[in-house]
Amino acid sequence: MKPSEIRQLTTEELRAKLMDARQELMNLRFQMTTGQLTDTSRLGKTRRLIARFETILRERELAEERGEK
Q1: CATH of the domain at 50
Q2: Which SS3 state, helix, strand or coil, does residue 2 take?
Q3: Total number of domains constituting the chain
Q4: Which of 1, 2, 41, 68 is surrounded by the most beta carbons within 10 Å?
């Protein structure tokens, strides 16, 4: 997903997708350990997607803090 697409999601949807991505990363790591993973680039892609989700969530948290003060 592109950052512009992620920003259109609500905070709850974003948190749900973050949990899904973390679960997928865990599954990919398990597959890597057992030798079942053929496309190792998915590990990096999933980690970057998690970082995007966390970054946008943090941006929203900071915006709320600035708005309240």
Answers
A1: 1.10.287.310
A2: coil
A3: 1
A4: 1
Give the CA distances from residue 32 to residues 19, 44, 45, in Å, rounded to whole numbers and listed in that order.
20, 13, 15
- Residue positions counted in the chain: 69
- Rounded to whole angstroms, the Cα distance separating 30 from 42 reads 13
Map residue 46 onto helix, strand or coil: helix
What are the pLDDT digits (tens) for 36-56?
999 999 999 999 999 999 999
Range of the domain at 61: 3-68
Tokens 């057992």 appear where? 34
69 pLDDT higher than 70: no
Alpha carbon distances (Å) from 41 to 11, 48, 54, 65: 28, 11, 20, 37
